């Protein structure tokens, strides 16, 4: 059963299972004038489950999102060599998408046992970062860029819970290009020997959208972007993070 999530609505195990959440278009959302949780009001939708706390909004119009996508295609330089590989259970594989890392000078980020140095911000990445900061009131010093050439490129289940990330800062995910399904799965409901029966939370992330993954989401929920063979267009995803500099020393 598909359910529309209204602003500040709540999804929990106690209610009927959620197969897929339909996120509303900008025409279908209304802004609560009394809601001052974010610094620059946009029509937010609240997505919640046990241990999952996310906020979703359309941050850019289609025209602006189209332009930003085009500019990123010209500016971003993607990783090659060892940085384009990932280690899973001791085996090394090519990452099934293109990746790049940008941020403040000297920052590094380690995941999948590979340490990546931040490249200097490009003008377009700075513009998007500042737009996210203006909207959320949160400051970010690093971004991971993932480019999916089509629906064959994908991302496996994982959590963004690395020690160098500020646990009090949400991860801000900006999507540009082809809409793709994004699936959350509770850590206790993974695999054949799962401890509990908890329905996954499934979203479709739109062109120009912003998804905030707030604490404690990445403690309890894995997320993935599965293969979608019918999708033939590219997608660029930017996940803005805040790295705690003192922990890197």
Automatic annotation (TrEMBL):
Instruction: Establish whether keyword NADP is in the entry.
Output: no
Its recorded reaction(s) are: a 3,N(4)-etheno-2'-deoxycytidine in double-stranded DNA + 2-oxoglutarate + O2 + H2O = a 2'-deoxycytidine in double-stranded DNA + glyoxal + succinate + CO2; an N(1)-methyl-2'-deoxyadenosine in double-stranded DNA + 2-oxoglutarate + O2 = a 2'-deoxyadenosine in double-stranded DNA + formaldehyde + succinate + CO2 + H(+); a 1,N(2)-etheno-2'-deoxyguanosine in double-stranded DNA + 2-oxoglutarate + O2 + H2O = a 2'-deoxyguanosine in double-stranded DNA + glyoxal + succinate + CO2; an N(3)-methyl-2'-deoxycytidine in double-stranded DNA + 2-oxoglutarate + O2 = a 2'-deoxycytidine in double-stranded DNA + formaldehyde + succinate + CO2 + H(+)
Q: Output the Gene Ontology cellular-component terms.
A: nucleolus; nucleoplasm
Q: Could you tell me where this protein is found in the cell?
A: Nucleus, Nucleolus; Nucleus, Nucleoplasm
UniProt region (Disordered), positions on chain: 1-40
Binding of 2-oxoglutarate occurs at 146, 148, 158, 161, 223, 235, 239, 241
Q: What PROSITE patterns does UniProt report for this protein, alphabetically?
A: FE2OG_OXY
Q: Which InterPro entries match?
A: AlkB-like, AlkB-like_sf, ALKBH2, Oxoglu/Fe-dep_dioxygenase_dom
GO terms for molecular function, please? broad specificity oxidative DNA demethylase activity; cytosine C-5 DNA demethylase activity; ferrous iron binding
Has UniProt tagged this entry with the keyword Cell division? no
Matching Gene3D superfamilies: Alpha-ketoglutarate-dependent dioxygenase AlkB-like (2.60.120.590)
Domain called Fe2OG dioxygenase: residue spans? 139-244
- Biased composition, class Acidic residues, residue ranges: 26-37
Q: What is its EC number?
A: 1.14.11.33
- Subunit (UniProt): Interacts with PCNA homotrimer; this interaction is enhanced during the S-phase of the cell cycle. Interacts with nucleolar proteins NCL, UBTF and NPM1. Interacts with XRCC5-XRCC6 heterodimer.
User: Its family?
Assistant: Belongs to the alkB family.
User: PANTHER family attached here?
Assistant: ALPHA-KETOGLUTARATE-DEPENDENT DIOXYGENASE ALKB HOMOLOG 2, DNA OXIDATIVE DEMETHYLASE ALKBH2
Q: What is this protein called?
A: DNA oxidative demethylase ALKBH2
Gene symbol of the encoding locus: alkbh2
């Amino acid at each position: 059963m598909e359910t529309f999530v209204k602003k500040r609505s709540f999804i929990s195990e106690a209610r009927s299972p959620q197969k897929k959440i339909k996120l509303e278009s900008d025409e279908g959302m209304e802004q609560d004038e009394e809601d001052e949780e974010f610094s620059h009001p946009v029509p937010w939708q609240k997505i919640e489950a046990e241990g999952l706390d996310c906020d979703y909004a359309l941050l850019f119009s289609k025209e602006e999102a189209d332009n930003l996508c085009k500019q990123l295609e010209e500016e971003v330089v993607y990783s090659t060599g060892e940085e384009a590989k990932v280690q899973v259970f001791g085996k090394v594989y090519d990452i099934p998408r293109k990746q790049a890392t940008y941020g403040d000078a000297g920052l590094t980020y380690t995941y999948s046992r590979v340490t990546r140095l931040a490249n200097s911000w490009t003008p377009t990445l700075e513009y998007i970062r500042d737009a996210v900061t203006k909207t959320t009131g949160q400051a970010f010093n690093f971004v991971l860029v993932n480019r999916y050439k089509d629906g064959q490129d994908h991302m496996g289940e994982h959590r963004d819970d690395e020690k160098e990330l500020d646990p009090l800062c949400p991860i801000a995910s900006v999507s540009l290009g082809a809409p793709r399904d994004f699936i959350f799965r509770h850590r206790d409901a993974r695999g054949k020997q799962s401890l509990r029966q908890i329905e996954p939370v499934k979203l479709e992330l739109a062109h120009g959208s912003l998804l905030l993954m707030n604490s404690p989401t990445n403690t309890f929920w894995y997320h993935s972007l599965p293969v979608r063979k019918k999708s033939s267009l590219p997608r660029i995803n930017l996940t803005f993070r805040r790295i705690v500099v003192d922990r890197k020393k």
